[in-house]
Amino acid sequence: xxxxxxxxxxxxxxxxxxxxxxxxxxxxxxxxxxxxxxxxxxxxxxxxxxxxxxxxxxxxxxxxxxxxxxxxxxxxxxxxxxxxxxxxxxxxxxxxxxxxxxxxxxxxxxxxxxxxxxxxxxxxxxxxxxxxxxxxxxxxxxxxxxxxxxxxxxxxxxxxxxxxxxxxxxxxxxxxxxxxxxxxxxxxxxxxxxxxxxxxxxxxxxxxxxxxxxxxxxxxxxxxxxxxxxxxxxxxxxxxxxxxxxxxxxxxxxxxxxxxxxxxxxxxxxxxxxxxxxxxxxxxxxxxxxxxxxxxxxxxxxxxxxxxxxxxxxxxxxxxxxxxxxxxxxxxxxxxxxxxxxxxxxxxxxxxxxxxxxxxxxxxxxxxxxxxxxxxxxxxxxxxxxxxxxxxxxxxxxxxxxxxxxxxxxxxxxxxxxxxxxxxxxxxxxxxxx
Length: 434
Ligand SMILES: Cc1ncc(COP(=O)(O)O)c(C=O)c1O
Fold this sequence. Notes:
By secondary structure, this protein is α/β, with parallel strands linked by helices. It has helices at 11-23, 80-92, 101-113, 126-141, 156-159, 170-173, 184-193, 215-225, 245-250, 276-279, 295-310, 313-334, 363-375, 392-415; strands at residues 47-51, 54-57, 62-65, 119-123, 145-149, 176-178, 198-203, 229-233, 256-259, 270-274, 341-344, 351-354, 378-379.
C-alpha cells in the first residue's frame, strides 16, 4: 500500500518565481528547466546546490537527481577532481588575449578518443557545434539543404522545423528537412525530392531506441552516394554511451560529429570534430566568438575526460541505469502495468514510457508518476539521466519511490481517476515536431 504523502511547501521557490515572471521573459533561461516541465504546485522551481548525485532546492529539500543539469553532469555535482582543475586554472585567469595551451591539449585528447576526430574546434553550447557543422557542410558541398533527425538546438536552421519556430524566416525553414529515425526510406525520399541539393545529413545516432537493420550504416552509404556530409550529433551520446561516442559503440564513423553536455561535467563547452578535409574549411568559414577557448571549461573538460578514463566510470553509469530500468520493469510487470508504463533505453539514459489506452504518450500518467516521485525525494523527468556519483543506494531508494508511484497509478487506472489525482498542472511537451 503506497504511503499518501503531503506536498512539500516551497515558499522560497514561489517567491523567486513571482519576481522572475515580472523581469525574465518566460521566467527561465532554458525552456526545459522551466516550471512547465514539472508538476506545478508540487515540484520545486529553483535548485540551490548539488553534491554528487543529489541536489537541494531553494527551500532546502533534498532530492536524488536524474536530470543532472539536462545531461552535462556525468561525474557528479561539485566533483572534486573537476572542481580542483577549475580552481587551479581560476588562479591563473579565465579569458586571455591569445590562445591558451589547454586548447591544444584537449584537442589532442579528443583526436585520441573519437574515431572521426582528425581536427577539433570548440564551442560553448551544443547548438554552437551543430550550427557550425551545418555551416561548414554547406561550405564544403556548396549546397544549402540539410536533412535532420532528432533535436539539434535553438538555432534558426533547426528550430524552424519544430512548433517553436516563431521568428525563423520561412526561407530558412524550407532549407531543413526532417526524416524519421530507423526509417531509411524517409531519408531516401528526401534525396529523391531534392537531387544534388542536400549538403548534410545530421542525426542523433541513438537515444532511447537502438538503430535497427544497419540503419546508421545505411544512412552513411546514402549520404555519401548523394554527395552529402554525414554528421552525428553526439551532444547526448558523447562521453555517455562510450568515450568515443555512439560512433565507437556502433562502429560507424561519420564525417563530422558534435559533442557537448558531458564534455565538461557542467562547464559550458562543446566541440565539433571530424575529417581534416572538411574541418580545415574552418580556416575561412566563420566560427569565432569571444568565449571560444575559455580556459576554465577546457581545464574542467580535461579533468572530466581523465576521470572517466581512469575510473572506467561509464561502466558504473550503465550499471546503475540497467539496475533502475530492470527494477522498474519488474515492478510494472508485477503490478500488471506493462501496457501503461515501462522503462526503455540504454543504461546511461533510460526513459520511463507512459502510454494511454490509445497507445499514445500519456502526459496525464507522466504527470502523476513524476509528481509522486518528487514527493518522495526523486527529481526526474521521463528520461532518467545517470552519472558516476549515483550509488546502488540511490537506485534502491528510487526504485522504492517508483514502486509506490506505480501502486498509485494502478489504483488510479482501476478507478479511472488519474486526472483527479494530479495535484498540479499537466506537463506539456517543450517542443513537438511539426
Ligand atoms: C542531441 C542534441 N543536440 C544539440 C543540442 C543543443 O545543445 P545546447 O542546448 O547545449 O545548445 C541538444 C540539447 O539538448 C541535444 O540534445
